[in-house]
């Protein structure tokens, strides 16, 4: 930002004119410029914070203050987010001090465990190549019947239990977690365990000790699974990774633990949020719901639009510039943190006319809900299949699904890296 520093001591009884919607005033430790606190709050569960549009138009690369006290730049324009995520001078290495982790515990644990999404080539390339063949469209399509069976089983349980249920706990979380665990051949009896691990390890308020303890519990489960698959290999993904990469010593056990751990945590969390918010959106938009139920061929374009509009992984792409990065909105200097806002990009009217509307006929299908560049989400094909089967089964069985208490405030997750709901009571 270019605001001139104010050398005077502010009077605490006088409102600071630099405070704007979305946060309180803070001072950049380098320039003294006035900064806003980030992240901002969504006023509407189906749209990014209104502040994004103001920044995109008037200050597209602002510096902000995040909970760890760091002052990264936000990137708000579609073209700039896409360019930054593919830029050679933009790093994902969490060990760089300026890396804009939202929580101190997150950065400390990631620097120690080295999840591949927080690394650069060649480390990242090695792990991504190992996984990419396992997440092809053909292989994920083969999982569709099992995903549908899980959805139908949970709907049976919901209907037998009464006339209402928690859509997160009783449906979305079970389906998304069971799917990714079955993919790896992990035991799926206690899906809430994995939800709790994700809640702590991805929480902005979690300390390093809490994150390390949560990951320790997760790695304990995965270590036992690795040992089991070494002795008794099956046809699951963990068996393939153990036999093809761990046993020939092409990767270390720590690399395998970190890779499987982040894939499970990230895969189940984002899909749980998308199923829940997607169902809520359709329940509040009966014309769209009825249209897709009448014409099931509309499910794929509706899913793409829900992914774009909801953009639950909005603040996941955290980066650091290793050299000056020139974008349409300005230049990010070398050595500074970057938060590439996926929701801001996906609601950029320059790229998506009437961006807040879910439009199955939209011709612009190049949204960034799964990121862009070498770190683009590996599990996007699986996520699409899960969303399709989860929502089609849910509304096929319960077309009148609605909030049990429409007047109640939504139970938004308070400090998660992924936007979503902690719970949602629904009736049918």
TrEMBL record:
<keyword id="KW-0349">Heme</keyword>
<keyword id="KW-0560">Oxidoreductase</keyword>
<dbReference type="InterPro" id="IPR002397">
    <property type="entry name" value="Cyt_P450_B"/>
</dbReference>
<protein>
    <submittedName>
        <fullName>Cytochrome P450</fullName>
    </submittedName>
</protein>
<dbReference type="InterPro" id="IPR036396">
    <property type="entry name" value="Cyt_P450_sf"/>
</dbReference>
<comment type="similarity">
    <text>Belongs to the cytochrome P450 family.</text>
</comment>
<feature type="region of interest" description="Disordered">
    <location>
        <begin position="1"/>
        <end position="25"/>
    </location>
</feature>
<dbReference type="InterPro" id="IPR017972">
    <property type="entry name" value="Cyt_P450_CS"/>
</dbReference>
<dbReference type="InterPro" id="IPR001128">
    <property type="entry name" value="Cyt_P450"/>
</dbReference>
<keyword id="KW-0479">Metal-binding</keyword>
<dbReference type="Pfam" id="PF00067">
    <property type="entry name" value="p450"/>
</dbReference>
<keyword id="KW-0503">Monooxygenase</keyword>
<keyword id="KW-0408">Iron</keyword>
